[in-house]
C-alpha cells in the first residue's frame, strides 16, 4: 500500500502517522519526491481502512498494491473451486445451464417449463418466487407459494432449484432450495450477505448494475468470511449509456475473474441485454471466454409472462440454443452433466 | 402508452393483444405506418406491466407517455410537501442542514460534534451506527450501541437524529430515531422499503449509485404506497467514469425533481465527491439550484475517523461553510430554523 | 415517429404544427389521451430533424419508431456486405486478422513484426504512423515516415496495410494505404468522415468511447452517404466506471450490429481491455458472437514499445492466440484467407 | 511516479528497467513488499510515457503521484488567468455570458437575437455556422455564410463572436471570430488542437462527452504547448446512464478545475441537460460553484429553430434568467462587463 502525502505536510504530523502505521504491524518507508512524499506500507494491508487513512490531514491519496480480497483470491487458492450441488458440479471443466421462467406463475407452467428445459439439457431449474420490481404496482412474485411450486417441479423432473432471496427474513423458507440467488440490486445488501455466510448452501451472487469487479469480489468475501465458501459469480450486465440493450454484458469480467479468483463464473445473457435474439451468440461468447455456465430465461408461453417476457426464449428456441451450446462445449472439452 | 408492433405481426395475434388490452380497461387505437404499426393506449397505464407487454411475440417496443409514479408526482399533488419533524420543517422554503460524523464512535465524540454543529447552525445530527462497508474487514459501525450514543447526543443538545438503517430486522431499534435514512446501496432493497412504508417516521431516501431519477422516484413510491408519505430525497452523486471525484454530483436532479415531484430534495456534497475542498462550493450550488437542504460530514478529529474521513470537515471548517450557507439562504429568502 | 404534446397545448399551435408536418410529406394522426395528446407521423421520417420538432413550444417529446440510418440498414440491404481488398475478403464467412504494433518505429521493427504475424496467419498488417495521444508530451508517431515504413513492410511480406488517419489534411498521404482506420476519438469528426466518403478505400470505423451503437451507425452513414459503402465497423471497448480493464468490451454490439446492419464487424480486444492476458479469451468470444475479424496488437519487443505496450502480445504469444483462433474458425466454418 | 512490479520479476529485468529509468534523469528507489516490489521515481515525470513503462514484462502497474499537466497547472501558475478579448475580460472576478442561437440561420434572425441578448446583458454572441450533427441528413449549418452573418450581427451590436470550428481546413475563415470554440466531439481532435495552439485567439474548449477532467486539461495542454495560453474551459455535461436529461452536468468539475488549474471555467447549462426549464437553476448553481461564465442558447423563434431548439430559451425567458444571474453576481461580488 502506498500513501501519498500532501505537499508541505508538517513533520510532526507525518511522524505521528508513521507511528500509528507501525503499531498496526506494518513496515513503513518514506520516499521524498520533488513535490511530494510517499510512504510505502509492507505487511498485511487487507485490514487497513483506506478511508481512515485518507482522513489524516496530511494524506492526499492512498493506493493499494495488493488486492483487498483474500478468501476469493486465486493467489491464496491456486486451484479452481468446484461447487458440488447434489449430483451436479460447477466449475473447472463442469459447465452448468440454469434455465426457467423469470417468474413462477402456476404449477402447470413451472412443471412444463422444467420438463422442457431438462429435456433440452439444462441441469438446474431457475424461477423467481420473490421478484424485485422497480414499481410497487408491478407483480411482486408468488412468494412462499412460488417456492412450493418450484419444489413440485423439482419433484416432477429431478432438476435442482435456483431462486432469488430478497430479504434475510425469508431465509428459513429457502431450506429446500438448492442454490440461493442474490440479485444484482442486493449485491451490496451486506446484512443479507452476512446471513448467507452462515448458511451451508451454494450462493449465486449476481453482479450489481454499477459495481466494479473488485466490489463484487468483496461481496463474495462477505459471504466467504462467514464460512460459506460456495459462491458462484454471475455476470449479468452493467449499466452504461448504451440504450439499444438493457444493460451491457461485461464479457471481460469472465476471464478476468478466472485469473484473479478461483470461484466459478457464469453468465446471464437474458438479463444482460433483454433481447432474446442475443441469447445464443452471447451464450456462445460466454463459453468461448471461459465461463462455467449460463443462466437463460425460458418461458412456455411468453405472451402471458408476468414479468421480463421480452428476454425469455420459448422452449423451442431454447432447444435450438442448447444444440449450439452442446456442440461448443464438446469443442471446448467441457462437461455438461445430465440432471 | 405506445406499443410498437413488429413488422409483419400476424393479424390474429394483434387482435388477441388488442382484446387483452381492452380488458384492462384501456382504450386502444391502431396506427399503421409504412413499415410498422403502433397501438396507442389511453387510460390508467400505471398498472400496465411493460415487461409483460413486451413479452408478446408481436410487440417490438413499448414506450410510456405518462410517468409511472403517482404518489410522488407533482401533477397530482401540486403543492410542495413540507415534512415536519418535531420542531423542524423541511421543504417549501424551510432549509435543513444535517451534519455529523460518518460513524458514531464514542459518547464524547458524538456529543462534542453535536454541540459544535448545533452551534454552527445545523438543525439535525447525522451519524452512522450501522455502516455499509465494501469490505467485510472494515469497521462495520457500533450498531445498537451507536444508536444509544446518538440519543445521548440528542439529549445533550436537542438536535434530532438522522441515521441509516441497513436491515428490516433492525427496525424496532429505530423507534427513537427522528429520521430514518435509506442508503444508496439499499435504494432498491424493496423489502426494506415496503417495511418503511408502514412506519410513521420520515424517511431520507438516498439515490442509488446507478439509479435513474425515475427509479429513485419509484422507490419513493414503494414507501408512499405503504402509507408513509414523509419521504425526503437525497442526491449523493452517481457513478460515472470520472475518477477525480469519488462520484459525480447530479445537480440537475435537484431542479428536475422539484418540477416533477412535490417531495423535498436535499444534497450530500460530502459523499458526492469525497473531497472536503468541494463541500462549500457544492453546498452553495445546491442552494442555488433549489435544494431544500444539505447533509454534510463533520468530524471532531478527522485524523482518527474510523470511516470516510477524507470527506469530513473539521468543526472549524464547518463553521466557515455554515457562514456561507447562511448568507446565501438569506439572499435566497429561505429559512433555516434553529434546532 | 411519435410526437408527444404538452398538456394543454393550444389548439391553434397544434394545428400549425400539423400543417408543417403535412407539408414535409408526412401523414399525421392525432390521438387524444387522458392527460396528453400524441401525433403519429407516417412516411420517410429519416430527414425529420428531431431537435427541430422538439423546439416547438407544444412538443414534450419525440420518439422514433424507425431507425434513422438507411445506407447501413439491413432492412434495405438484406445481404451481408463483403469488403474486397486486393486478394482479401472481409465479411459473410470471411474472417480477417489484422495485427501489428501500436506504433511503427523502425523499418527493422515493422518488417520483423509483419513477417511474424504473416507466418502466424494474420492477413493484414496494422501499425500506427499518426498516433492520437492524450498528452502532447507523449510520442506522436512517425507520421509520413511511418507510412513509408509500413509500405516497406507490405513490400517485404505482401501483407496489406491498415493504419489510422488523424486529419483530413493528410488524406493524400494515404494513397497507398489499403484500409484507412478512423480512431475512436475521431468517430464523430464529421468533416473527416465526409472526406472519407469521397475516397474509394475501405474505411475501418472504430466505435467512439462514449458513443451509442446508433451514433456509430450514423457515422458509418456519413461515409456511405458520400458514396463510399466499404465500411468495416470495429468494436474496441466503451468507457464505463469499471477500472480493472481500460475500457469495457461491448460484445453484444457484435450480434446486434449483424442483425440491424449488413456491414462487417470486427473486434479489437487489445484496446478494449489493455490487458494481454485477455486477448485470447476475448478473441474467442468475438468469433463465437459472430464477428468478422479481430485486430490484435503484436510487438516484437514490447519492453521498448513507444506506445500502448501493456496490451501488446509478443510474436510467440500471438502464435499461441492464432492457433486457438484457427481451430475455432474451423469449428465455426469460417474462412481465414492466406495473405 | 510509482511502478509496481510483477511478482517474481527476474532480477536482471528489474535492473535493466532501473538502468533505463536512471538514464531518463529520474532518481529511483526500490521497495520490497511481502508479495510485490515497487519502484518510486523522482524527477520530471511529465515526459515519462506510462504506456511505454507498462509495456515492460516486469511491470504490473504504474501510478502517477504528480499531475501530467504543466502549463494548465495552478501549482506552477498560482494566479488566475484573465482572458482579455477586446473590451471584455473573463476570469478572476470577471463573469461572462455568451448567448445566442444554436445555429445561425438568417441575417434578420441573428441580428435580432444579438440585439435582444445584448439588451439583456450578455457580453458575447454565440451561434453555430458549422454544426456537428449526428446524422448526415440533418442541417449542417450555413458554414462560411454563417460566419459572415455573425460578423454582421457583431457590427450591428458590438457583441464579440464565439463560434465553433469543426476542421483545421477552415481556420482561415475564423480570422475575424473573437473566440474560437472547440466542440465536445473534437476535444481530442489533436491535430485541430495543435493548429489552434499556433493561433493567437482565445479558445473555448468544451469537455468531451466521455472525457475525464484530466484528459480535458491535457487537451488544454495541447493548445498551450503550442504557445496559445488563452484557453477557456467549458463544462457542458457528460454522458451517463441517466435519460431524463440529455447529459449530466458535472458541477463538481467547476470548483475542482479552479483548484488544480488557473484557467477560467464556464458552464453551458443548455447543452448539459437539453431542457430549457433547467437553464435558470443550473446557471445559478454554476455561479455559486465558482464558474467564470455561462453559455446559454437563446432563439428568437424556437418553433422554427433548425437545430437544438428544445434547449433554447426565448428572448423573454432569457431576460428573466439574466435578472437572476445579475442579482446573484452582485451577491457574489462578481463583475459582468457591458458589451
From TrEMBL, chains A, B, C, D:
Keyword terms of this UniProt record: Transferase
Protein name in UniProt: 3-deoxy-7-phosphoheptulonate synthase
Domain DAHP synthetase I/KDSA: 87-323
Enzyme nomenclature, EC number: 2.5.1.54
Pfam families (UniProt xref): DAHP_snth_FXD (PF18152), DAHP_synth_1 (PF00793)
Database matches in InterPro entries: Aldolase_TIM, Class-I_DAHP_synthase, DAHP1/KDSA, DAHP_snth_FXD, DAHP_syn_2
Domain DAHP synthase ferredoxin-like: start-end pairs: 1-67
GO molecular function, one term: 3-deoxy-7-phosphoheptulonate synthase activity
TM stretches of this protein: none
Cross-referenced SUPFAM superfamilies: Aldolase
Amino acid at each position: 500500500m502506498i500513501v501519498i502525502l500532501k505537499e508541505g505536510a508538517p513533520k510532526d504530523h507525518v511522524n505521528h502517522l508513521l507511528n500509528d502505521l507501525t503499531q498496526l504491524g506494518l513496515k513503513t518507508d518514506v520516499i521524498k519526491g520533488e513535490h511530494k512524499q510517499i510512504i510505502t506500507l509492507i505487511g498485511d494491508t487487507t485490514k487497513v481502512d483506506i478511508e481512515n487513512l485518507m482522513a489524516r490531514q496530511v494524506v492526499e491519496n492512498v493506493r493499494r498494491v495488493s488486492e483487498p480480497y483474500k478468501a476469493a483470491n486465486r493467489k491464496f487458492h491456486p486451484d479452481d473451486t468446484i461447487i458440488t450441488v447434489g449430483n451436479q458440479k460447477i466449475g473447472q471443466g463442469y459447465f452448468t445451464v440454469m434455465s426457467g421462467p423469470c417468474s413462477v406463475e402456476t404449477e402447470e407452467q413451472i412443471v412444463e417449463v422444467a420438463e422442457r428445459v431438462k429435456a433440452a439439457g439444462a441441469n438446474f431449474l431457475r424461477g423467481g418466487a420473490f421478484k424485485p420490481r422497480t414499481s410497487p404496482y408491478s407483480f411482486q412474485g408468488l412468494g412462499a407459494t412460488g417456492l412450493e411450486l418450484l419444489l413440485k417441479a423439482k419433484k416432477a423432473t429431478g432438476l435442482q432449484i435456483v431462486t432469488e432471496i430478497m430479504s434475510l427474513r425469508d431465509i428459513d423458507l429457502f431450506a429446500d432450495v438448492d442454490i440461493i440467488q442474490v440479485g444484482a440490486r442486493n449485491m451490496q445488501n451486506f446484512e443479507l450477505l452476512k446471513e448467507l455466510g452462515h448458511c451451508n448452501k451454494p450462493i449465486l451472487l449476481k453482479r450489481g448494475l454499477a459495481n466494479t469487479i473488485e466490489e463484487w469480489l468483496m461481496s463474495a468475501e462477505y459471504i466467504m468470511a462467514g464460512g460459506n465458501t460456495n459462491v458462484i459469480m454471475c455476470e449479468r450486465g452493467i449499466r452504461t449509456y448504451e440504450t439499444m440493450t438493457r444493460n451491457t454484458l461485461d464479457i471481460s469480467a469472465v476471464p478476468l475473474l478466472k485469473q484473479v479468483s478461483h470461484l466459478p463464473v457464469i453468465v446471464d445473457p437474458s438479463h444482460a441485454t433483454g433481447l432474446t435474439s442475443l441469447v445464443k451468440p452471447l451464450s456462445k461468447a460466454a463459453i468461448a471466454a471461459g465461463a462455467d455456465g449460463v443462466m437463460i430465461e425460458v418461458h412456455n408461453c411468453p405472451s402471458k409472462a408476468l414479468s421480463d417476457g421480452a428476454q425469455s426464449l420459448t422452449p423451442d428456441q431454447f432447444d435450438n440454443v442448447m444444440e449450439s451450446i452442446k456442440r461448443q462445449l464438446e469443442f471446448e472439452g467441457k462437461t455438461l452433466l445430465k440432471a
